[in-house]
Amino acid sequence: MINVVILGTGNVAKHLFDAFMAQKGVKVVQVYGRNEKGLSVFGQGTPTTSDISAIANADIYILAISDDAIAKVSTLLDLQQGLVVHTSGSIPMKALPKKYSRGVFYPLQSFTYGRKVDFKEIPICIEAETEADYELLGRLASSLSDQVVIMNSKQRKALHLAAVMANNFSNHMYHLAHEFCDQNGVSFKLLHPLIQETANKIQDVTPYDAQTGPARRNDKGTLKKQRSRLKSKNQKRLYKLLSKSIAKTYGKKL
After folding, report:
1. pTM for the predicted model, two decimal places
2. Which of 167, 172, 176, 209 is the 20 to 30 A CA-CA neighbour of 192?
């Protein structure tokens, strides 16, 4: 049995809590949060505390908190045992105090409140300083996921930036498309099959080979007409910038 304390009450903390609670080999012995309201969603069967000096003993302490808070909160801990890890993709392991056994437990996924995810399909990137800590983290990660990857801080930082481009930036483009559809009386839902096919396609071919559209074809007439239809200066700039990037990727000039 691996005993775990989760520090944090946000989306990552809640998703990890729910996932661990479904595992026979893992026990969440406590959840820490700064306020009682945030702790109320974690169920009555698990002890909670808002007093960081009252943290329970555990094998692993998971800091599922914002990047900016990791260094500060970890220095407030007064632990006698266990492995301290954070869940950030961009913060190095060495941001945690040297006096503790330390590591990283980074699930590569976008977590949204109220949406369930299948942890078996989520890559979990782990980092530690000793073989024993790697073994412990590996067992914890394997209890949730079929994809456990050992990765150092430099590699993880690069992966996180790639995730920002692939997920956060693409989602923002979905938002702009949704906004444009609303402005023109067209249902955004009509784009759902297209969006799904794009996501499915890059599992079989590279994004380079999957690219289509007027910028890929260097269809200057269509590009000019479409850009003229955009009313927002921000959308016009993005359209021009992305079209130029696509054209340049395929050796064309707009």
Report:
1. 0.90
2. 209
Cα distance between residue 249 and residue 236, in whole Å = 20
Same domain, 36 and 161: no
Tokens of 242: 């992305």
Distance CA 67, CA 156 (A): 14
Residue 254 covered by a domain: no
**Cβ-Cβ contacts under 8 Å for 230 (sequence gap 6 or more):** 180, 236, 239
Task: Please check whether residues 104 and 141 belong to one and the same domain.
Answer: yes
Q: What is the pLDDT of residues 84-101, one digit of tens each?
A: 999 999 999 999 999 999
DSSP 164: I
Q: How many domains does the chain have?
A: 2
Contacts of 61 (CB under 8 A, 6+ apart): 4, 5, 7, 55, 77, 79, 82, 83, 84, 85
Instruction: Give the model confidence (pLDDT) of 107-132 as tens digits.
Output: 999 999 889 999 999 999 999 999 99
Residue the block writes with tokens 């054209």: 247
- For residues 185 and 172, state if they share a domain: yes
Domain residues for the domain of 180 are 156-249
CB 5 within 8 A of CB 58: yes
Residue-by-residue DSSP string for 165-213: IIIIIHHHHHHHHHHHHHHTT--GGGGHHHHHHHHHHTTTS-HHHH--S
- Return the CATH number at 199: 1.10.1040.20
Q: Is the pLDDT of residue 254 over 80?
A: no
